[in-house]
User: Fold protein-tyrosine-phosphatase from Actinomadura craniellae.
Amino acid sequence: MPYRITFVCTGNICRSPMAEWVLRHHIEEAGLDAEVDSSGTEGWHVGADADRRTVRALREGGYRSAHAARQFDPSWFAHYDLILALDGGHLRELRRLAPDAAARHRVRLLREFDPAAGDDLDVPDPYYGDETDFTTVLAMIEAAVPALLAEIRTGSTARRG
Assistant:
């Protein structure tokens, strides 16, 4: 059974789809058995493509992108091994929605996996910014990938053992 991860931001058109496609790329390169997707805490953009600046940043970074925004459904807690919030507001909302302590424990911040992040664990929302803000978000996501891959390896091994 694959290790299952979802990224969650606000509208699911900027940060979380970017994180989804970056991690998908690296999982494929590493040959890991994992499923990755994303969603938003709000339903404002359900069905919409990723923001054009997200797509551009991904393409320029060497990543693919295909996306239709969706809203996180609390019934999904049982499906995921790891639910990664992009900022503290998302973390609080997801933990509030969690049905039990085990589900709350699976909700973490993406930047917890970046050893250089320090105390600044929020990935800022680039929506009202410019192209540079999207490039900055991409770099923050990429910085978390090595530790995320290690987490997937550990979690997949634990599930088999």
Observations:
- The chain has one domain: 3-160.
- Residues 53 and 90 are 22 Å apart (CA to CA).
